Amino acid sequence: MGYCKFSKFDLLSLIIVFYVAHSENDAQILNDRASLLSFMAGIAYDPGNSLESWNASDIPVCKWSGIVCAMNRNRVVELNLSHKSLHGSISPALFNLSELKVLDLSGNFFQGRIPAELGSLYQLRGLSLSSNLLDGEIPAEVGFLKQLEYLDLGSNKLVGEIPVSLFCNGSASLEYLDLSNNSLSGKIPLKNQCELRNLRYLLLWSNRFVGEVPLALSNCSKLAWLELGSNLLTGELPSKILSKMPYLKILYLSHNLFSSHNGNTDLKPFFASLVNSSNLEEIELAGNYIGGDLPSIIGDLSTLVEINLDTNLIYGSIPPQIANLVNLTLLNLSSNLLNGSIPSELCRMGQLERLYLSNNSLSGHIPSAFGNMPHLGLLDLSRNKLSGTIPDSFANLLQLRRLLLYENQLSGTIHQALISGTIPAEVAGLSSLKLYLNLSSNYLYGPIPLELSKMNMVLAIDLSLNNLSDSLPSQLGSCIALEYLNLSHNVLEGQFPAKIGNLPYLKELDVSFNQLSGEIPQSLQASSTLTLLNFSYNNFYGNITNKGAFSSLTVNSFLGNDGLCGSIKGLKDCRRKRARHFLMAILLSLLITPIFCIVGYPLVLRSKFKRQLPISKGKAIIKDDGEAREEIKYPRISRRQLIEATGGFSSSSLIGSGRFGHVYKGVLRDNTRIAVKVLHSKAAGEFGGALRGNAKY
C-alpha cells in the first residue's frame, strides 16, 4: 500500500501558493469595489435608495444590490441597476470591472455621453443602456467588443452615424442590436464583408437614416425581427433581401420613402418575396405612399397575424384571396385609393379582431355577413361611399368595441337591434362593452333608440350630422361610462334632460344646431368633469352664469339662443333685460290708459245702451248677453238716409244724450230700425268728425 510523503518544505510551498491566490482574489475584488464606488459617485439622485447597501462597510461587494459575482471566483460579473430611476452620469471607472459580462443600466435618467472606456470590457456579452437621456455619438470602441451578443442603446438622444466597427469589426456573435428611437443619421454601414450571420434582431426604427437598405443585409439569413420604420430610407422595397430571410417573423418598414416595383406600380414582387418566410406574422408598410394594386398572392402568406398597409397609394379592388389569411387578427387598408365593393369573403376571416377600411372610395352595401365574425372588436368603414342601411346583423358582434361609419351615404333608422342585439329588450346584448359608436355624417333619421341607454359601458357616442328627430331621451343618463356625446346638426327638439348632466365621467357635450328648447339644466353646470360644451343654435332660454363647468366657456358655446342671458361675456345682461321689461310695462300702461278713456269708455256706454234696446223683426232677434246670436252683415247707410230716417235728427227722435253727443232713433225705407250716435263738435274733431251709424235687425 502506497502513501504520499510530504516534506515540511512542500507543505510550506503549498500554503504560500494558497495564500498568494487568496491575496490576488482579495486584491481583485477590492479593485472591483473601488470601481463600483467611483460609479456610485456619479449618481446624483437615487430616489429608491437602490444603492443603500453599497454604503455599508460590513456588507461584501458580492451582496450589494444589483451585483452578481462568479461562483468560483470572487469577481463581479454582472451589474444590473435597470429601472431604478437613477440620475447622474456613467462613470468611465466601470472599465476596471475586467470580468464583467452583463451591464444593464436601462430605464434610468443617465445623462451625458457613453464612455468610450466601456470598449475595454472584453468579456462583455450584454450591454443595455436603453431608455436613458444619453447624448453624443456612439463610441467606435463599442464595436470592438468581440464577445458581445446583446446591444441595446435605444430610446436615448444619440446623434451622428453608426460606427462602421459596430457592424464590420465587432462581434460575429451579435444576435440583438437595438439603436431605435434616437436621432442617428447617415446610411446603414453594412458592407458585404461584414460578418453578422448570427444577427436575429435588428431594430433601427425612428431615426434619420437615409439611402437604400444595404444588400449585405441579405447575409443575415437568421434575421427574425427587422424594424426600419420611421426613417428616410429610399429606393425600391427590398424584395431581393427579404427573399433570403426564411426565418423572418416581424417586418416593419412603415413611414419611409420606399416605392414599389416598376415605377411604384407593382406590389407583386414584394409580397412574392415573403412567401417562403414560413414564420411571418406581421407586416407594417404604412405611410410610404407606395402604389399598385393588391396582388392575389397576398393570400398565400397564410401565417400572417397582422398586416398594416394604410396611408399609401394602393388602388383597385380588395382581392377576395385576402380571405385566405385565416389567422389574421388585424387588417388595415385605410387611407388608400381602393374602390369597388367590400368583398363578402372578408367575413370568412374568423379570427379578425380589427378591420380598418376607412378613407377609401369603397361603395355598395355593407355586407351583412360581418355579423358572423365572432371576434370583431373594431370596425372602421368611415369616409367611403357606402350606401344602404346598417345591417341588423351587427347586433351579433358581441365583442364590438368601436364602430365607425361616419361620412358615408348610409340611410335608414338606427335599428334597435344594433344596440341591444337579439337578446330580449330587458337584457341589452352589448351592455358590458366599452364601445365607441360613431355613425355621424350619414342620412340616418328617426328618434334616438331608447335601447342605446342600456349600453352602460359605452365611452363615446357620435350621431352628429344626420337627420335624427324627436326628443332627446333622458335614458341616456344611464350610460354611466359615457365621456363624449355629440348629437349636433340634427333636428332634435324638446328640453335637454337634466339626467344627462349627472353622468359622472362626461367630458365633452355637443348638442348644437338642433331645435332644443327650455332652460339648460343646472346639473351640467354642477358637473366636475365637463370641459367642452356647445349649446349653440337652439332655442334655449334662461340665466347662464360663469360658474362651475361653465366658468371656462365663451359666448361661442351659446350663440343662436336669443333667450339666453347671463354673466358670460357676450351674453345679454339678465338684469338689464328685467329692467327693460319693467319699463315697457310702465310705458304700455301710460299709453293704454288714455286710449281706454277716449275710445273704450264710449264703447262701454254703447254696449250698455244696446243691452237696453232689444229690437226684433221677423225671425231675426237681438238677444241679451249670454244668449246665442245670429250674425248679419250690416248695410252701408249714407248721411242722406240717416237724416231722412231720423226726421233731420229731430228732438222727437232723440233717445239719449251723453258727454260726447246724442243718440237718435230712426226707421229706414225698408222699415229697418236704426240707432244713430252724433258726436259733439269737440269729440268729432278728436275722432276725425266721423258719424257712426249702426243698423240692427
TrEMBL record:
Q: Name one GO molecular function term.
A: protein serine/threonine kinase activity
**Per its UniProt record, what SMART domains does this chain match?**
LRR_TYP
**Which residues participate in ATP binding?**
677
Q: Where is the signal peptide?
A: 1-23
Highest rank taxon of the organism: Eukaryota
**Which residue range or ranges hold the Leucine-rich repeat-containing N-terminal plant-type domain?**
31-69
Q: What is this protein called?
A: non-specific serine/threonine protein kinase
Taxonomic source organism: Sesamum radiatum (Black benniseed)
Q: What is the lineage of its organism?
A: Eukaryota, Viridiplantae, Streptophyta, Embryophyta, Tracheophyta
